[in-house]
Design goal:
Length: 402
């Protein structure tokens, strides 16, 4: 990758090679253009950047540290490091872009923000940002995820957000995005739809990436200071792909292997996973072009993952481009591996990871077994508080919890 990559991509129309763009209804095209213009003028201004950096330091708790997994590494023979995004205020990387998006909405004079959420981490971060900036907030969440992620639903409501259960279709993340888009169409002039990852029409994949690249910038500097060299590999879980693109941005120019870990769920059969880069093909969903899991008739295929934040039929267009360019290797971890990694990290390091992040931990365990002297840096994108009731109910008996 050339060092100008982040300035060159996306292009002025929001494309990463053939992926991305803005496939939206005619009445939204002008609004998308306004958001892109506002982001380029306001979001990159001195005052905006200075305020965001102050918020990150004094409200979010950045920089987040890197932790060396001494016990886990000793047991496995390699070296596993964690970028502790779980130590952000609200417990995940999502706050990185939520504060930026809601601050942009405030600068643009919007009267309300709306969002979708799967695992609830984006919803909690949005509710937090909305409270901080004094804007009302509607959060759409699939009814299945509302039940599965009850602790985060309570947190959103305590923070003042209006949580709207979505009962259509599979009642998970894709339907939550559908409902949020429908709501946004009603009053785009007064509302900003704050997309929760690097998907959607331009400029959202670019905006969210830019707000998340702080993870990679910090991680590269911290690792060099800690070890005097770069890691052999960096990995992160990939659903929509915001935490992964955030940490990858810090290492694109370096001789470091990058791995995005998709959810294989119950297996490779259609409907049993959400591995769109591994098993999908190029298509259009929710206003952008990327790899997509589709039925033969072109409709979105049912998807599944034990991790609510990963069960989405597509993936950020920049990931599709990085896959085609061969810069990032996209691999998979299934439910069983993720659950085993969840308990193993908890019991060897005293860190309970989110089920989403557990997929990346699972791959790191596999990596060091195959590279006994190697080093891998995992983006631990979130903490597992939200998952403990679900994990205890479903898997506790097999792991001595119940």
């Amino acid at each position: 990758m050339m060092s100008t990559y982040l300035k060159d991509y996306p292009d002025k129309d929001g494309f990463f090679g053939p992926y991305g763009g803005s496939y939206v209804p005619e009445r939204l095209k002008a609004e998308m253009a306004k958001i892109a213009e506002a982001y380029c003028n306001i979001g990159r201004s001195f005052d905006f950047v200075s305020e965001l950096r102050r918020i990150r330091r004094h409200f979010q708790g950045r920089p987040t540290p890197i932790h060396y997994c001494r016990n886990l590494s000793k047991a496995l023979g390699g070296n596993i490091f964690l970028k502790r995004e779980d130590l952000n205020h609200t417990g995940a990387h999502k706050i990185n872009h939520c504060m930026g998006e809601v601050m942009l909405a405030k600068y643009m004079g919007k009267k309300k923000v709306i969002a979708e959420t799967g695992a609830g981490q984006h919803g909690v971060a949005m509710a937090t940002a909305a409270a901080y900036f004094g804007l009302p907030c509607d959060i759409y969440m699939g009814a299945v995820d509302v039940a599965k992620q009850h602790p985060n639903v309570v947190r959103m409501k305590i923070l003042g957000a209006n949580v709207i259960p979505v009962t259509a279709g599979q009642q998970t993340l894709k339907e939550a995005v559908d409902a949020a888009f429908e709501a946004y169409l009603q009053s785009p002039e007064d509302t900003l739809y704050c997309i929760g990852t690097v998907v959607g029409p331009h400029p959202f994949p670019m905006m969210v990436r830019d707000f998340q690249k702080v993870v990679g910038e910090e991680a590269r500097e911290q690792y060099l200071e800690m070890m005097g060299e770069l890691p052999d590999a960096v990995c992160a879980c990939v659903g929509g792909g915001s935490n992964a693109i955030g940490i990858f941005c810090g290492f694109l120019d370096d001789p470091v292997k990058l791995y995005g870990v998709e959810p294989l769920g119950r297996g490779a059969k259609p409907g049993d996973n959400a591995a769109s880069l591994t098993l999908g093909k190029p298509g259009i969903l929710h206003g952008f072009k990327s790899y997509t899991l589709e039925n033969p008739d072109g409709s979105a295929m049912p998807v599944y993952s034990v991790a609510s934040g990963l069960d989405y039929q597509s993936v950020g267009p920049e990931h599709a481009w990085l896959k085609d360019q061969g810069r990032v290797d996209y691999v998979t971890a299934d439910d069983k591996e993720a659950i085993e990694a969840f308990f193993r990290l908890s019991r060897t390091e005293g860190i309970i990871p989110a089920l989403e992040s557990s997929h990346a931990v699972a791959y790191a365990i596999r990596y060091v077994k195959e590279h006994p002297h190697g080093s891998i840096l995992v983006n631990l994108s979130g903490r597992g508080d939200k998952d403990i009731d679900y994990v205890a109910e479903r898997y506790g008996a097999d792991h001595g919890v119940l």
